[in-house]
Each structure stands twice: as C-alpha cells, then as structure tokens.
Write a structure and sequence with these properties.
It is a single chain. By secondary structure, the chain is of the alpha/beta class. The protein is about 45% helix and about 15% strand. It has an 8-stranded mixed beta sheet with strand order 14-24-23-16-17-18-19-15. Helix 33 (about 850-860) links the parallel strand 32 (about 840-845) and strand 33. The structure holds phosphoenolpyruvate and magnesium ion. Phosphoenolpyruvate (PEP) binds near residues 634, 780, 781 and 782.
C-alpha cells in the first residue's frame, strides 16, 4: 500500500468535511480546522484511520513507507516549535492520542509527556527552570506509559506514591519535593523492570512507536468494543492517532488546564460552562481525581463555591478563551466541548468537538440556535436523535412525598432513580440480571465500569465534577446521575457508605435526583414528566415539515388517551384479539374456539358481540374524525387456548361442555407451528361467522356513534395475514355483505374502507392482484420479517445476539427493518400495487413504525403513514420530519 498516511495539522489542503473526518478522525480533523482558523494549537500531526484498518487487515503489520512519513512529520513539528525529539537540552515532548470518526470519550488510550527519559528530564528542568515540574512530569509519564503501553496496572504506582508519602509524613501530592519525585522515578523504574521484565524504554523513538501501537490495540480493547456496540459504531472505521507537541498546564501557578462547554450540557442554557485546575494536566480534570474549580463567576455563585472562578483568577486569559469558544461555536454551528491548557500565561487549544448533551439540552440548544439564526429549523431537527426523546419520559420525584435528603452532589444527568446500593460494576450487573433495581455508588467511575453503569438505574459518585467520566457517560446513556457528593465516604472493603452519622450498607434503598443533585435515603415515588416548551417547539416544527402521518397501535382507552396526548393522527392498528384478554372475556373467546358446531360457535359469538360493539364505540368516540383501522381477528391459537386445568374447568363451567371433551378439543387444536398455523384470514375462511360478528359489531358501533354524537366515524377494516387474492376477495365480499345487511336494517349509509395487511412474501409479490380488492395496505413488518427471514418471532431472540456479535446481522431485524431484504419486498409490493391502483394508501403497523431509521425508509418510499405504540409517537414524528428534510436535501443535490 502506498499513499499518504500522515497529515500535519497545518496542511493547507485539509478541511473539516466528512471525508476528512473519516480519514483523520473527529479529533484530528478538528485540530487541523482550529489551526486554519488561526487559533493557538500546539503543532502536531495525525496518522490516518487507514493505517489502523491496514494494521488489522495485515496481521498487525504496517505499510513500508509509513515509518518515514511519521519521521518527516515529526521533523516538521520540531522545526515549528524549535525543540528536538530526544534532545537532552531542549526536548520536544508529545502527546499520543486516539481519535475515531465519532467521539468515544475515555474509551481508548492516551499517553502524555512522551519523549522523557533520564537525559531529557534534565533538559526539561533547565528549559522550564523548574526541576520539580520536570520530575513530576517524568513520573507521570512512566506511570501512564507503563499502564497504557506495557500493561502494568496503575495501582502498583499509586501504592508506591502512598508509601513515599507515608515514609516522609506527607499528605498531599503537591508536598512531594524534587528529592521525593526523583526517588519515585527510581522506584517506578524498578516496578517496570520487575513487572515487565525489561527496563523502562529510554529511547524516545521506541517510546513513540510503543504508544502508536498501543492506540491501535486500544481500538480492539474490551471497553472500546462494548462502547462501539452500545453506540452502533462500526468496527471497520478504525482510529486515527494524533501526535501533538506537549504544552504544560502543570508548570506552575500561571498554568492551568480545563474543559469548557459553550453551553450548559445538562440544561442547554446559553452560558459558558466548564471547569479548570491550576497547575495540572488535562487528565486530572477528566479523571475526576481532583475536584476542579469552575470557569465562570456566575456558575460559582450558583453552586455557592468559595474557590475562585477562572474569570477571577485569570481574567485576561478567560476573556481570550471565551472569544475562542464563541468563534468555534459559530464556526461549527453547534455547542462545543473544548479542552484547553494554559502554559505560563499562554492559552493553547487542545481539542474541540460537538459536546455530548442531555436530550433536554439538545432540544433547548437546537431551538435557541434557530432563534439566534445560527441554524435553520431543518438543521435543528436533524440535530436531535429521535431515539433520545425516550429520555424525556424519565420520571421525576413526587414533590409531595416527604423525603430524607442525606446529602447533595452535582446534578450531572437528569431524572430520578431509586434502587439498592451496590458498590461495584460487577455487582450491579449481577443483581440487575436477577431483576433488582440497583444504584451504582462509586468514589469515581472509569471506563471499566460501563457495564455496571448500564445495568444500574442511576449512578452516584463521591468525587469528580460535571465533566468527570461518570457525568459524561451517564448523560450519554440517559441515566440519572449525581457526582462529587463529597460528604459521602465509601468503604469498599466493608461495603458501606457513610454520610455524617448515617451508615448505609450495600443493599439499602436510596434515591438520587439528577436534577437537583439530592441524595435521599429510601425509596421515593416518581411522577411522569411534562414536556418543556423546547420539546413542544421541536415537535411543532417536525409536524410542519413531515409528510408521513403518525398513527398509533392501540385498542384500550388508556393507550388511546396516551397516544392522543402525543398527537396521534389516527389508529393504524387496533388488534381486536387484544380486546379479549380480560378474564370475563377470554372465556367466551375460548368457548368460540373450542366450539365444534356452527351453533355452538354462534352462541359464543353472540356473547362477544355486545362487548366488541361497545369497545368500538368507545374508540370512535375518543378518536372523533381521525381514521381508525380495525384489524379483524388474528389470533394465533396458542395465545388463547387454555393450558392449565383450572382454566379448563372455568371454561367447562361457562360452556356446559364436560372437562374431558374440552381437553380433547384442546389437543385437537394444538398446532406445532402456530405462527404459521390456523390464524389471521385463515380463521375466517373456515369460520366466516367470526368476521361476520366483528363486522356487524363495527357497523353497529358506527351507527350508535352517529346517533349519539352526530358524526360518522372514519373507519377502516383490515384483513390480516392474506396470502392470496382469493382470500381477499372472499373476505371483502363477506364484510360488504354484512354492511349491506346492517344498512338495510338501519337505513343508514355507511362509509368505510377495506384493506389488508401485507405480512407474507407471497402477498408482497402479488400485491397487484391483492390490491384489486383493497383500498389500502398496511405492512405488518413483524410477520413480514419473520416470514422473509424464516425466523420465529417468538424463539429467535435466543440466538440473534450471537448473529449480531458475529457480524452476520447488523441489527436485530425485529427492531430495525432489514431494508436490504424485507425493505426490498416492501418496495416491490408498493410499486406493483401502485401500478394497478395509483391511489392506494400505504402504511405500516409493525414495530418498525416507531424505529427512526425504519421510519425514514418508509418516508423515502412515499408512504402515507406509520403506526407505532403510543410512547414512540414523538420519536416517529421527529424521524418522519428528518426523513422529509433528508429527501429534500437529496433532491437539491
Ligand atoms: C405485524 O405482523 O407486523 C403486525 C403488526 O401484526 P402482529 O404483530 O399483531 O402480528
Ligand atoms: Mg402480524
């Protein structure tokens, strides 16, 4: 492989477009872009993601010319900065960091201060005129390099620091003198020799290559793999490697390091928000090892802090920093998460990226940026991940409940959560697997804890700030989180946390409020959320822009009311069999199923008819003039047959049929493969009286509604699981015949539509024939996925995860529509149906109707509606609007 693999930040031909981002990773592309904006960026270069891909595709080898490219890029950096790599007088030190296409905070490895050895440390001390700083930097480098590159665990070095402190009666790291630090360096090197079997590498080049390989290796680390899975990041993207000259935030009191968000990442408020630490290196802020100070004075007042804000301690530099932040936000037209360092009163920008934010913040930022004319409504809609709206459904604490607040921390991620205290990620995972609701309590979290955080209802830490690992990750996950609750003392050994006099053992119930930061003893009831004005605005814009109609799958009063609360524009699927689950109803249905003669069946049906009729009337009254699509019975027998003796006895009593006959009938009706059995339209072909009763109930309910409320309900009658045109023809005639009878009897003219579900590949392929007897199609993508893949809806969840793990399926096809296969069938079906009936209405009512990418696909086919469960309506509304925006963008190209 020949080509260009290494790009200097200052190269002219680099811009921040998508292809550059793919090549240089987010961090590399942004560093180059900041450089071109004239911002103070320490010089450096990026090794492209192609190399990482090459590395894994070629048995961990690298292309021939790659070494020389890295060398010459390093020479360029040396020239710009006037220092030399490995030089004992004035050494260039570099940071080596990963940087994938999309940010994976804390997931991969970083090495700072690379280039230090026993010689160059003397040069650094001379250059900085600060021997203590040089040796402190050297010991940090040995520690980090040994951990990341040599695989020697952190705690060996931490223990060594504790020993030295104890021996010398020292409490704080800052009290360590040059003498102690030199001693520490010696001891660290000994640890390396004993654990690694070799001396700590003194050659700067060897160090550099070690770190580059470590970054490539970290792409396949367990935590990176887990993160990618959770965030749908493909493995073949690979990571870039950024090598950048070091600037030192730990070179004295005129130096600092910090993280800044251009807006509040938790609430979205348009105020600079961030934290800094004087005389520290970047990792100290992010790792939450020291509790940082805040940047703005208003933030300091809000939190009632006493330590000075950066505005107070470094007024000129904070002005310069704010100007840079504003410039970056304007440039990227998005909220930025910025890392900076101040070295001897000079500001340096180390990174900028679009900041992770809560959904509440995302909505507010999007709306306010439209008001500020920074972005358009369309851009705003594309900025919000529809699935994240789920976070808005977070419960909050019932204010009327008397709660015992034991302490307060920082409100890092909103929502309230109750659970039993667990002190480790492993225990969180174990207990949640057993069905317990757990709350993970840690001094601080690290990427190793991701599993446990995922398994917990919420996360509480005693250390760390709003940009600590726990805070950032919990926000991304949408989990309630409180951090830095400093009055909590945790003893992992005895599984206990103390807050003043209160002792809380593992297994005790506590509650956290991610909105206020309160930590509460015991369980507190929660309430459902109300939506913010920003949410309502975004939803209004979505409704203005989308062309798909969003209906709901619902049949109960409760679900229909919830759906109307979310602006459902109709019912796309009323599953009539779901109306039978209550005990007083199911007995009649079972009676109908086991009936052996027409007479017996009609007797049972006569008992069902009045309940069906009143249910339909209730639905019509709630839905007013909105369309209501009622599906005639689709009852896989196994879901309805009685199994337990007790159920059979009840049935025997109600039907007057003796128990043995019932048992015998159940055996007769048992199907080996009920999902492909006597269900859907097939039931009505053999027992037409069932659909006759249902049609009659629908028509009579329409007439009652008309008489009571003076409007004709907007009714659609749908036949499920059609495979052939003949089934459709026969059942359409059946429904029409009943309608005629009801009309003649009542003298009322009934308007309604008849349609079918497309759930079988045969029906999809023969849509032109089926369409002749259908005014509309609704794609039942649950069954259509089942029958296209030949995968059982009920059983395949046992092995689908392995298919995903092995890369055979990108996603579970029952969650995200398989556009390539099932989608192709739908496309063919729609084309064939439209050919014979251009006005045919097309919709979807499988679970995919609430899945964002699937909704966008249906939009691209020009469908009329999607239908989903009530709580997914906001997600579908937004996804539909995104689909419209994307289609328009495509047209413009
Ligand atoms: C479907 O198959 O997609 C569908 C909506 O019907 P059900 O899930 O009731 O089989
Ligand atoms: Mg179905």
């Amino acid at each position: 492989m020949v080509g260009k693999f290494v790009y200097s930040f200052s190269e002219k031909n680099i811009d921040g477009d998508a292809s550059m981002r793919d090549l240089l990773g987010g961090k590399g592309a942004n560093l180059a872009e900041m450089c071109h904006l004239g911002l103070p960026v320490p010089p450096g270069f990026t090794i492209s993601t192609e190399i990482c891909r090459y590395y894994y595709a070629n048995n961990k080898n690298l292309p021939n010319n790659f070494h020389s490219e890295v060398k010459s890029a390093l020479h360029k950096v040396e020239k710009i900065i006037g220092k030399k790599f490995g030089d004992h007088n004035n050494p260039l030190l570099v940071s080596v960091r990963s940087g994938a296409r999309s940010s994976m905070p804390g997931m991969m490895d970083t090495v700072l201060n690379l280039g230090l050895n026993d010689d160059t440390v003397i040069g650094l001390a001379k250059y900085a005129n600060n021997e203590r700083f040089a040796y402190d930097t050297y010991r940090r480098f040995i520690q980090m390099y040994s951990d990341v590159v040599l695989g020697i665990e952190h705690y060996h070095f931490e223990e060594c620091i504790s020993d030295i402190k104890q021996e010398n009666d020292i409490e704080l790291d800052t009290e360590l003198t040059v003498y102690h630090l030199k001693d520490l360096v010696g001891r660290f090197k000994e640890i390396v020799r004993s654990k690694h079997g070799k001396a700590f590498p003194q050659d700067s080049e060897e160090q550099l290559w070690g770190a580059i390989f470590a970054v490539f290796e970290s792409w396949m680390s367990h935590r990176a793999i887990v993160y990618r899975k959770m965030n749908s990041i493909p493995e073949n993207w690979g990571t870039a490697v950024n090598i950048q000259s070091m600037v030192f935030g730990n070179s004295g009191d005129a130096s600092a390091t910090g993280v800044l968000f251009t807006r509040n990442p938790s609430t979205g408020e348009n105020k600079i928000y961030g934290e800094y630490l004087i005389n520290a290196q970047g990792e100290d802020v992010v790792a939450g090892i020291r509790t940082p100070q805040v940047i703005t004075t208003s933030h300091k007042k809000e939190l009632e802090l006493t330590t000075p804000s950066m505005e107070e301690s470094m007024p000129h530099l904070s002005k310069e920093l704010f100007a840079v932040a504003t410039k970056l936000e304007k440039h990227y037209k998005d909220m930025q998460d910025i890392e900076f360092t101040i070295e001897n009163s000079k500001l340096w920008m180390l990174q900028t990226r679009s900041g992770k934010r809560t959904t509440q913040a995302a909505l507010r930022i999007a709306v306010e940026m439209v008001e500020e004319k920074m972005i358009t409504k369309e851009e705003a809609l594309l900025r919000i991940e529809p699935e994240s709206l789920n976070q808005l459904l977070h419960p909050y604490l019932d204010k009327n409940f008397k709660k015992q607040v034991i302490t307060k921390g920082l409100p890092a991620s909103p929502g309230a959560a109750s659970g039993i205290v667990v002190f480790s990620a492993a225990e969180a995972e174990r207990l949640s697997g057993l069905g317990e609701k757990v709350l993970l309590v840690r001094v601080e979290t690290s990427p190793e804890d991701i599993h446990g955080m995922y398994a917990s209802e919420g996360i509480l830490t005693s250390k760390g700030g709003m940009t600590s690992h726990a805070a950032v990750v919990a926000r991304g996950m949408g989990k309630p989180c409180v951090v830095g609750a400093g009055s909590i003392k945790i003893d992992y050994d005895i599984q206990l946390m103390r807050v003043g006099d209160v002792e809380i053992k593992g297994g005790t119930h506590i509650t956290i409020d991610g909105e206020s930061g309160e930590v509460i003893l015991g369980y507190v009831p929660t309430k459902s959320p109300e939506f913010s004005t920003y949410f309502i605005r975004v939803m209004e814009w979505a409704d203005q822009i989308k062309s798909l109609t969003i209906r709901t799958n619902a049949e109960t009063k409760h679900d229909i009311e919830a759906a109307l609360g979310f602006n459902a524009e109709g019912i796309g699927l009323c599953r009539t069999e779901h109306m039978f689950f209550e005990p007083d109803r199911i007995v009649h249905v079972r009676n109908m199923i086991i009936a052996q003669t027409l007479q017996e069946r009609e007797k049972a049906l006569a008992k069902i008819l009045p309940t069906q009729r009143s249910d339909f009337q209730m639905i019509f009254e709630l839905m007013k003039d909105r369309p209501v699509n009622i599906r005639l019975l689709d009852m896989p027998l196994h879901e309805f047959l009685p199994y337990k003796d007790e159920e059979m006895q009840i049935l025997s009593k109600a039907s007057g049929i003796d128990l043995n006959t019932i048992k015998h009938r159940c055996k007769q009706l048992h199907e080996v493969n009920p999902m492909l059995g006597h269900r859907g339209a097939r039931i009505a072909i053999t027992y037409p009286e069932i659909y006759e009763m249902q049609s009659k109930a629908i028509f009579e309910a329409m007439i009652s509604t008309l008489k009571k409320l003076n409007f004709m309900p907007n009714v659609e009658i749908m036949v499920p699981l059609i495979a052939t045109e003949n089934e459709m023809k026969i059942l359409r005639t059946l429904v029409e015949r009943v309608a005629q009878a009801v009309m003649s009897e009542s003298g009322v003219v009934l308007n309604f539509k008849i349609g079918t579900m497309i759930e079988l590949p045969r029906a999809a392929l023969l849509s032109h024939k089926i369409a002749e007897n259908a005014e509309y199609f609704s794609y039942g993508t649950n069954d259509l996925s089942q029958t296209t893949f030949g995968l059982s809806r009920d059983d395949s969840s046992a092995f689908i995860p392995e298919y995903i793990e092995k890369g055979i399926f990108a996603k579970d096809p029952f969650v995200e529509l398989d556009v390539e296969g099932v989608g192709e069938l739908i496309k063919i079906s729609a084309e064939r149906a439209r050919k014979v009936k251009p006005t045919i209405k097309l919709g979807i009512c499988g679970e995919h109707g609430g899945h964002p990418a699937s909704v966008r696909f249906f939009n691209s086919l020009g469908f009329d509606y999607v239908s989903c469960s009530p709580y997914r309506i906001p997600i579908a509304r937004l996804a539909a609007a995104q689909g419209s925006v994307m289609s328009k963008m495509k047209e413009q190209v």
